[in-house]
Structures are given as C-alpha cells and as structure tokens.
Amino acid sequence: MMADSAGLQFVSSYAFEAMQKVDVASLAALSDPELRLLLPCLVRMALCAPADQSQSWAQDKKLILRLLSGVEAVNSIVALLSVDFHALEQDARKEQQLRHKAGGSNGESILVSQLQHGLTLEFEHSDPLRRLRLTLSELLSIMNKVADSNGEFFLKSSELFESHVYLDEVADVLCILQAELPSLLPIVDVAEALLHVRNGDWFLCLLVANVPDSFNEVCRGLIKNGERQDEESVGGRRRTEALRQLCQMNPSQALNIRAMVVEECHLPGLGVALTLDYRPDTPDEAVSPLVSYVSGLLLGTNSKVRTWFSMFIRNGQQRKRESSSVLWQMRRQLLLELVAILPRSRSTHMPNDGDMVEEASAGYSGLREEHVVKASALLRLYCALMGIAGLRPTDEEAEQLLQLMTSRPPATPAGVRFVSLSFCKLLAFPTLVSTPEQEQLMVMWLSWMIKEEEYFESAAGVSASFGEMLLLVAMYFHSNQLSSIIELVCSTLGMKIAIKPSSLSKMKTIFTQEIFTEQVVTAHAVRVAVTNNLSANITGFLPIHCIYQLLRSRAFTKHKVSIKDWIYRQLCETTTPIHTQLIPLIDAYINSILTPASKANPEATNQPITEQEILNVFQCSAGGSRGGRQRYSITTQLLILYYILSYEENLLASTKQLALMQRKPKSYSAALMDQIPIKYLVTQAQGLQQELGGLHSALLRLLATNYPHLCLVEDWVCEEEVTGTLPLLRRMMLPSNTCRYTQSQLHQAFQKLPSSSPRLMRILEHLTLLSPGDLIPYAEGLTASMALLLEPAVPRRILQTLNKLWMGLNTVMPRRLWVMTVNALQPSAKLLRQQRYTQNDLMVDPLIVLRCDQRVYRCPPLMDIVLHMLNGYLLASKAYLHCHLKETADFERQSQTVSNLGVPGQPDTPEVTREELKNALLSAQDSAAVQILLEVCLPTSEEQQQGASTESLLSSIGGPLPEKLKQGSLGPRARRGVEDAEPEGGLLSDLREVQCLICCLLHQMFIADPNIAKLVHFQGYPQALLPLTVAGIPSIHICLDFIPELLAQPQLEKQIFAIQLLSYLCTQYALPKSLSVARLAISVMGTLLTVLTRAKRFSFFMPILPCLVAFCQAFPPLYDDVAGLLIQVGQVCASDVATKARDIDPLIARLQYLKEKPQGAVASGGGSSKLTLPQRTAEELGGADPDVQLCYCVEATFMDIISSTLHGL
C-alpha cells in the first residue's frame, strides 16, 4: 500500500461485492465508515428515475432510502446532484478550448474565477456548484497535463487531493462529476489522472466502487497504458500498487487481471504481486500458484512473454535489495516454500565416516512422498529462473537448493523424476557446489544414486530410471562429448539453457576420477538389466542408450568386457513399435566385432552372436512347430536377421582392411542361413512397416545386395495374387468347420494316381484357400510327389493347381522349396541312387535344375516352376561367386604381396585374372542355360512325326511368310505350306506352351544382360529355331546391334547364321536400322562371292539365297541390289559350268530379262500372279553339278522375289 494513503480506509471486498450485486441486505450490514465510501452511488440510485420498474426494486429502493435517511452526509451529496450539470459541462468545454489555444498555460479560468485563498479553504467555504467547479477544474488540469506528458511520469502536488479533512467530500464530488459528465470525464482517463496525485489509489478505488461495472474497463486501460517494466520507475510502482488495491477490493477478478498483464506484456511486477496476494483454498495439495505462474511464463511457448519476464528478473537484481520490491517478495516466498518441504534432518553439517555408518543404520530422513511433485516443480522453476531469466541465487538460496537437490525421495515414478531433475540441475549449474563440504555432499548423493538405482527401478515400476542417465553422462564425460551432455540436460529439464562446456570441467573430474572410471562404467553397464519388452512407447534414457555410447567409444573392447550376451538378451526382449536406438546399436556392435579399437591391438574386438543363439530365435518360426506359441517376437527375429545380413555385408566390405591386419573373422555358415526363413520374415515385415520404422527398407536393401534371388520382380507380382484382396475374401468365406486334410492323406492321394485324381483335386483345392504361411507344413508332401504327376492320364487341372500352390509357398519359403523341388524332379535313375542336392550345390552349379526328368520339358505347369528356379539360382550363383571372390581375394592378394615384394605390378595380376575367370564362368553358365532351353524348344522325333514345327509361333504372330523363307535351307525341294506344319490339335500343344514359357524367360534374361544375347548368337543355334526366337522373344531386336560384327567373323557358319537371323529380324522389325544392316549383308555376300572357292561358294549361298526373298519382301528398295547380286552369282556359276551343261547359257539371259521386265514374266505366264518354273526331278538336281544346282536355285529365288513382291502389290 502506498505510504501517502496508509491511514485511509479502502472499500472492502465484501462491500464491493454487495455493490456489484446491489445486495441491499448486505449493504445494510455495512458499518457507517464503510457505507460512507459508497454514498455517491447509493444517493444517485435512490434519487434518479430507475429503468427497472419492478416491484422488487421498488422494495429495495425503499430500503436504500431508509438506510440513507440516518446519514448526515447524504444532504451534501443531494445538494451536489441538484446542480445544472449541462451548464457546467459547457463551461468546462469552453475552458478546455481556452487552455488549448493558450498552449496549456494556466491563465484565465471560466470554471473558477480568481481564487482569494488556497484551494482547500475555497473548497470549504464554497457552495455545491463552486465545489464541483473547483474539483472539475483541478481534475481537467491534471488530465491535460497527463495527455501532454508523452508517457513521462510526474506527481502533481494538489492541495485539494491531499487534505485528509476534506478527502470524503472531494471523493463525493469526484464520483458525482464522473457519473453526471461521463463524456467529458471518461472513467479510464480519470483513473489515469488519479495516479499522478497523492492518495490517487484511494480515490481510484472509491471511484470504481461507486461504478462497479467499470472495474475491468479501468484495469485494462491502466494496464495498456502501463510500463513494460513496472519496478523500474515510480510511476510503474504507483500503477502496480493501485491495480493491486483494485484487485484486493475485487479478488474474484485478480486472476483475470493477471491474464491481462501477460497478454499485454506490461507490469510484470503486478502479475507476481497478484499471485502473491492470491490464496488458494487447498494450499498443501498442489503446487503453489506462484510456482505455477512463474513456471508458465518462463517455460511456456510464447517467447515474447518469456523475454519480457526474464528482463523483469534481470533488471530487478540490479537494484539493491528492498523489502518492498516485488521480485524480492517473490524470491522470499519461493525460498519459504522450498524450506517448507525440505527433510527436517537436512543440515550443512557433513558427518564423518562414523556418522555415515550410523546414518545408514538409522535410516535417512528423505523427502516426503507428498512433497516430491512440489520439489520437482520448484527445481524446474529455479532452473528456468537461473538458466533462462539469469537469476543469481543468494548464498542462502544456493544452500537450500543444494539441500533439496541432494535429498532422497521415495522409490516412486515421481521420485525417479525428481532425482533425474536434481542430477541435471547439478550439471547445468555446477556453481551451486562451491565449498568442499558441499562437494562431499554431492559425491555422497551420487554414490547413493548408483547404489539405489536398481531398487528404484524395480520398486517404482518404471523402465527408464536415473541409473541409465548416470551411465550415459559418465560415458559422455569419458569420451569428452560435452555437447551431448548439454543436450541431455536440456531435454530432461524440458528447457533450452545456455551451458558453457567449460563449466562442466569440475563435474567431469568428479565423474571420471572419483565416481565413474571408464572400467567401472563398462563393468556396471553389463550388469544393468535389459529393458523388458523394449519398444518406442518407452521414453526416457534407457540402458540401450548407455550401451550404444559405450560401443561407439569402444570401451568394452578396450577393457575386455564382453557385451555380446547383453545385446543378445536385449534383442530378444523387443516388441513393436520398434525402438529407434536398436538399429544403430546393431550397427555399432557389428563395427566393434569387425574393426579393432586400435591398430596396436588387433584382437581387441567384441564377440559375435553364436550360431546356436541365432538358431534358438528361429526354432519356432515359419516351418517349425506351428502348434506352440512363438517364443520370440517377430521384432526379435527381424532384428537378428538384420544383424546377420548386415554382419555379412560389412564383413565383405572390410576384407581389405582385415587382410592388412591378418585378421579373418568367422562368417556365418551356409547351413545356418538355410534354416532362417528369410523371405517369410521379410513378408511379415512388409505388413508392419509403420511399426518397424526403417527396418523393412534396410532389410530389402540387404536382400537385394546379398540375396537377389529372393527379390525377383515376378515374385513381388505373384505376392499380390497370393496376399491381395481376392484371396483374402476367399479365405474369409472358408467355413471354420471345413474338413482338414492331413499330410498323410495328401501323400496317399498322390501315391494312388491316376485313380485318386478326384480326391487329390479336392485336397489341392482346399489347400488353395489356406494362407502361404499355413501351407508350410504341406510343402514337403507337395514337392516329394511331383514326379508322380509326370505320368500319363494325370488331369491338367491337378498340375495347374499344384503350380498355384507352389507359387504361394514360394512367397514364404523359396530357398528350401527350391531344393526340395529340384530333388523331387530328378530323373528316375538318380532317384534310385538317392542323390540329394543341397542349396550350396545348386548355387555352385545352377544347371543342375535343368538335369531333371525329361518329361518335365513337356509339362508346362512344372516347366514354369523349373524356369522360375533356374532364374533364381542363376542370380544366386552370381551373388555367391561375388562373395566367394571377395572373401578370398584380399587375403590371397595379401599373401601374394608378401611373397612378391619388389616385383612391380605383380600383385594385381591374380586379382584381374580371378575377376575375369568369374565373369567367364557366369557367362558360360548363362549361355549354357539358354542353349539348353533352346534345345528343349526343338520338337522331338515323335513330335516331328506328328507334324509339330517351330514355325507355328512365328506364323501366328507375324502373319504369312514367303514360302521360300519357310523352307529354310531346303533348296529347290518340294515345299509345304504352313498349314501342313501345324499339329493336329492346332496351336494348343504342350510344346507350344513350353516354347512360350522359355521365350518369356529368355526375354527377361536378354533385357537384364544384353551380353548374354550377344554371346548366345555368336555361339549360334539350330536355324530351325530362328522363327521361334524372333517371334517369341521381343527383346531379340537388340541383335541388330551386333550382326555387323557377326558378319565380320571368319567362319562361314557364323556368317550364314547372321544372314538367316537378319532375314527373320527384317520381316519382324522393318525398321531403318534393319534396312541398313540388310544392305551391309548384301554387300558382304557380294564380296564373299569374289573370294570363296567353288565348294565354299555352294555351301554358303545355298542356305542364304532364300533369305534374299525376306529382304525384298521387308524392304522393296533392296530389289535392285538383290537382283544384281543374283545375276552376279548366276554369272559366276554359269561360267564355271559353260562346258558341262548346255542349258546354262540361256539362264543368264533369262535372269537379265527378269530383272529388267518382271511384268513381262507375269504376262508370259498368262497373267497369273503365281510364277512357276519347269519342274525338275530329284534325280536331275541330285546328280547335277553343285554349280548347276546353285544356278537353278538362283533362278528359283528370283522367281520367288518377283512372285512375293507382285503378290504384295
């Protein structure tokens, strides 16, 4: 309360509430002094005509009149109200205009004539009107001065407002003036003016009490016009005190006024003062209002508010300590609250060793459970005050704070939180520990933390205790990661504090030398229990964070502490959603296994997880016992899988460094990898991507690198058919009481084929409704009896259903399924010898897949399975050889380097040779597979007798072919039409279907590696297959790129194959590029004509002459070049046999005529578009000279070209 109004009686909160509610009964209960303050409003209420005409108000008005009848001062107020206020207002406005013109100087006054005495005496001797004029004149003078002051505070000495004798009368006049002249005297402006006179707060409270509905308006106006820092100036302090008095008069609005203060960021002292004045109903049950308010300002999200209040704290500390200062009142109150919750036995006296023993036995008086939450809130508040607002604690505050921080709470979750906050506050503000006694107290408390951590964790029932934080901080100190400690402290406290790394030097010394040496840290970390059911839902600092940091700093290997068991146990105790620290932990662990901590000690590495431990995790997984519940979660299995794949990849990537250090860590065996259901686990992970974070994508990356055969594109497409919506709906419709077939029933149905076909079909149809995972137990039964399906009379539907089931199983257990299938489809001779292949055998030699029973080659559903496996094993073989080369090359090169010292260039030679050999082997494998498959496409002798032909596919896709092209190299023999070449059943035959499947695979192989296509065509294959390959393999057009190179080969066979291939490509792909290559081929044929011997000429031109017909049909512009070439061939042959055959000479003339006048040949043929030659007997052709045969063939080719060309027109 202001000193100048100390003796005055203010309006009580009871009286103000009665005025607000117009509670006449309460007003009647007021004492005379209290009632005297409210007379202006009550008199006006009684005399003025009311808006409320109700009976109840009429009764209340009578009570008010009765209440006023006994008060003498009422008469003077009635006299004031009988004045002509309209004339008074006019005079006041004239005076304001006069003052404005005069520049604000106090000259002539219209309201008040020249005063004879002082203002007080004039007021005493004046009538009511003059009293009103005197007060109004003085008030307007102050208001004008406030308006002209530009915010600078002044205190006007006014005799009228200072005389205690007349304060009541002046207050009456003031209230009446404001009530009757509201437009001239706005209440907010009047309130602002009253701050600049003595006793202003008393007048202000009285004015507002007589106009109670203006309370919020007045307060908001005063706050808006207030200073940003109220403690800095006299005006600010007066404003704060006035508002504080107003809120004491109306305490129900105090918190709303405080909210206005924060909203405007003005008068911070007022906000604190109102909080200090506020007394909650239940002070002991919750955190105090002061702690809540100040914490909200400093730790809230509004940075503007935080900065504003921080400035209040900083500025307040610069002034001398004053008991009247709001800041010091706040600090005193906070200190009192802190001391109130301190354990009673705490003191700064440090016991000696004997005392410690006694204390331990007697029990330590710790923090009471009901005070723990309050203590935590106080600690966070002091952290915010010191770290954000820059509060410098006094010695007393520092001492009591340290006592609170080092107190020992009960083992509850709140207690764990309190200890964590205390520990972080010690790190954030190490200056709180200044004396040796305080340092010893802190060391004792830290030692207690280490000792009690495990008990706290178990008793409090929390997973994240303060023990992990201790370990983590110790590790950060050892590795000098001070910035990480600062981040940890800020995140735990929940605020951003500027902590200098240099301030942590004392704490670092205590931690690293007294409490937590590095060896103690590592030994303790291994003994820390793993977190049960670790998942991302468990927040805070866990043992996994500590182990991760220790792994990164290589502390375990440095001190020879085995961490393998702890990591394995923690991986086994995981669940979804996956904790973000698990994958980095595995990566750091793998790095510590493969990379020594230092070059000086290459053996300083961690031990890898054993194969038996890994097998234990997967023993109940896919393919295991389906009845019992899985012992380990899918998360554990996926993490162990990630560990193995990542370990193997890192091992390969580190071979060079390991070779230099003469180290060779053990790789996991192929037998182990065969027992892990990799594809099944990855499929499961696909459905849990949201909960597994980045684990699924990491596994896919590792699979694509190390197991490409498990990432086939067609597999992903097939999975959609197996796991899509339609199969799901079918399974949902499967009744629960449906018949369950056993594996033995399935086996018996297979054994009794073909008589048991209907029963087998029912079983297989039922199995199609099961999910791939549920099919796993039937896998062996389905594959073992595959060979029985090759017998005749087995329905095609059974084969197709088996294919569907196999593809479903392929999505969950591909590698084991492939091995079982390959072994089941062996020829009967091998089956009798019981020769069983392993996964490793098939990766080393993928062609084993094709050494199956020959009947598979004409069974499309099983051939589809064989091709799928072949493609997978070819990819697996590439990955296997790459890994094998990588594993052995660096170590062998290292030994070569040692043995070939001084020989420049020598060490690199074996490496290059090995890489080339590997590539040559892979190319040989791929090309051999292609050649075998192409050979499968050829019809057998039985199929040839039935009329099957490889041309059927081409004829169906590419349309009719020229007859000469269909003959191939048949020469002038009798030709058959395409329709004669088709089998009796049309195009739908097993051979045709197998050809389509093989062409599809070859198409994929050629796209994946165009070099395979080049190698196969340089090797060559039967000409009879060319119609099939060109029509059935869309990517074969890439052969146009290397046909010129093939034509340049010295072997005639390759040149012939190139021209025959080109003829089919030109027919299938009539492109500009094909035209240019065809021109080149014709040019090469012309060149070879001039250099080949007679025998070679016959063997070269006889098979390729029919190809010229295809060139001309595809590209008519080539007609002249082809005709010229044919005449040239005819001339060369005719010249050689001029003396042997009489009918050769006219041949040249006929050819020239055909070239120049092809239309004439048609006309002479009677207009028929089909040209015919004289039929020659087989004896004539067979017994003729080769040149004669070639001549006749040239003529026949000429006629075919003309015929096909004109037929096209």
Automatic annotation (TrEMBL):
The UniProt entry lists the main location of this chain as nucleus
Q: Which GO terms describe its biological process?
A: snRNA 3'-end processing
One term under GO cellular component: integrator complex
Question: Which superkingdom is the protein from?
Answer: Eukaryota
Pfam families the record matches: INTS2 (PF14750)
Q: Where is this region: Disordered?
A: 948-978
Record keywords, A-Z: Nucleus
The cellular location(s) given in this protein's UniProt record come to: Nucleus
Annotated InterPro entries: Int2_metazoa, INTS2
* Family label: Belongs to the Integrator subunit 2 family.
Matching entries from PANTHER family are given as:
INTEGRATOR COMPLEX SUBUNIT 2 (PTHR28608)
Q: What is this protein called?
A: Integrator complex subunit 2
Report the source organism. Answer: Sander lucioperca (Pike-perch)
